[in-house]
Design brief:
10 helices, two-stranded antiparallel sheet, 2 domains, mainly alpha
């Protein structure tokens, strides 16, 4: 039975099945990671307590402890520390569940794909998961250290920062997830091309608008108002846009080749 022949109730039943499998994976990973939430949190505080240095030898990244004007994080409500552990475990579980979630997405849309297109499930999961992790890593290693250095030292004068653990975790996780999603841009472009919504030629002709939108997105996502950090975010978006154009030329529908 093709996708066109499937009744709405069967579509909804299939969607529910895929959501249940995704949630089950998320719950299992959450249960496994909750016991390690303290270690995950300590890792999350590295941009606050350390200078991240890139070196030419493995593991290519070195965390150098530095003096910080934030002595320690505090919690301002009885349940704030507990919810911090919940949040870091949940986001970590989401990242580790991403291959399963993407597989469920693929299984849901696969009835509408051609038989030769369904074989791309492996590359789709690998590339989409890798792009998300690259975006999250870019945020953690590049954006957050710059943001912490800027926000905690810009015209503070005699002020002493006292940051709550909940505010810090929300700040970091929000941007890590946002950057991970932004790095999925090539996948989104390929799907829009396959659906006939855009064409490679249209994407190329509207490159100047893509540059403008990239800087608007960067201004929203970057936690600091300075142009350097915004350019630091807009640059990768433009690179991802160009990668998306190249990928869309490879995967465009045959009838769109001349469009």
């Amino acid at each position: 039975m093709t996708e066109e022949q499937m009744p709405v109730t069967e579509h909804l039943s299939e969607l529910r099945r895929r959501i249940i499998f995704s949630i089950l994976s998320l719950v299992i990973w959450f249960a496994l990671l909750f016991g390690f939430s303290e270690h995950i949190f300590e890792f999350l505080t590295l941009p606050l307590k350390s200078k991240i240095s890139f070196i030419a030898e493995a593991p290519f990244i070195r965390f150098i402890p530095v003096e910080s004007n934030v002595e320690s994080l505090v919690f301002l409500a009885p349940a704030e520390a507990f919810w911090m552990h919940i949040k870091v475990s949940l986001v970590s579980a989401f990242i580790l569940s991403l291959p399963v979630i993407l597989f469920q997405v693929w299984k849901f849309i696969s009835p509408g794909l051609l038989p030769k297109e369904r074989k791309y499930v492996g590359p789709f999961i690998m590339i989409a998961s890798s792009l998300f992790v690259m975006g999250a890593a870019f945020c953690f290693l590049i954006v957050l250290p710059f943001a912490m250095g800027f926000l905690l030292n810009y015209k503070v004068g005699t002020l002493t920062p006292m940051i709550s653990v909940g505010a810090y975790v929300d700040f970091c996780l929000k941007f890590i997830v946002a950057f991970g999603l932004v790095f999925e841009l090539p996948i989104v472009i390929v799907f829009l091309t396959r659906m006939g919504i855009v064409t490679p030629r249209t994407l190329s002709k509207n490159r100047k608008y893509a540059v403008l939108i990239s800087f608007v997105i960067a201004a929203i996502l970057t936690p600091t108002p300075d142009a350097f950090n915004q350019t630091l975010m807009a640059g990768p978006i433009m690179v991802l846009y160009e990668i998306g154009i190249l990928a869309s030329k490879l995967f465009r529908p045959k009838e769109k080749e001349d469009g």
